[in-house]
Amino acid sequence: MTKSNPSNSDLTTPTFVIDSSRGCKRVSGPTRKSTKGGWTPETDKLLMNAVCKYKGKHWKKIADRVPGRKDKKRDVQCQHRWQKVLNPNLNKGPWSKEEDDLLSELVKVNIENDKPKWSKISKQLPGRIGKQCRGRWHNHLNPTIKKTPWSREEELILVNAQMEHGNKWTEIAKLLPGRYVLNKLRQDGE
């Protein structure tokens, strides 16, 4: 089997095929495994020490104490690393019934322009970040989600829409009401 060099378009736009036994399956495209700008246990420790020293404020000063962060947005990188990965108050475990109930209630009262304001919602759920709240809502709690297996027709709509729109998942999702498109991609990629 000979390997050919993929074109740039092959690297940026994943390709999907219909597999009769598994449905829609990703067969090409970039992966998220990147070593560029990675965090090490040593840089994590430096970040934790700097966060303690500056009490989680002054992110530019904190970033100055973490070598290897040369990017203009290094303060944002450090803040995100702390808030989304290292913060010991972050709850990465399963959601409780109480959290689910509170999240459902908060979604109802924190709608702006027909969309929940996830950052605002997460501030009222200790230990959870906006991304976790959004994922929990879209994957499990939203009452409009169809939980039945995908039909062949829906899979074809997904594949054809991805070919037409590329990775514009918001546009693609509009063609499949009640389906969380990224769930299908994760499911079939396993």
Structure description:
The protein is mainly α. Among the domains are: 46 residues, no CATH class; 45 residues, Arc Repressor Mutant, subunit A. It contains ten helices and four strands, in the order αββααααββααααα. Strands 1-2 form a two-stranded antiparallel ribbon. It has a two-stranded antiparallel ribbon with strand order 3-4. α2 packs across α4 and α5 crosses α7. The longest helix has 14 residues. It is globular and about 55 Å long. The two termini are 24 Å apart. Keywords: DNA-binding, Nucleus, Repeat, Transcription, Transcription regulation. GO terms for molecular function: RNA polymerase II cis-regulatory region sequence-specific DNA binding; RNA polymerase III type 3 promoter sequence-specific DNA binding.
The tally of helices reads: 10
Approximate shape: globular
Task: Tell me, rounded to a whole number, the average pLDDT.
Answer: 80
Proportion of strand residues: 5-15%
For the biggest β-sheet, the strand order reads 1-2
Class inferred from helices and paired strands: mainly alpha
Would you identify the regions where 5 or more consecutive residues have pLDDT less than 50?
A: 1-12, 20-24
Number of strands: 4
Major sheet size, sense and barrel closure: 2 strands, antiparallel
What portion of residues is helical? 40-55%
Radius of gyration from the CA trace?
Answer: 20 Å
- What is the H-and-E element order? HEEHHHHEEHHHHH
Span from first to last CA? 24 Å
Main location: nucleus
Keywords: DNA-binding, Nucleus, Repeat, Transcription, Transcription regulation
GO biological process, one term: snRNA transcription by RNA polymerase II
Region (Disordered): 21-41
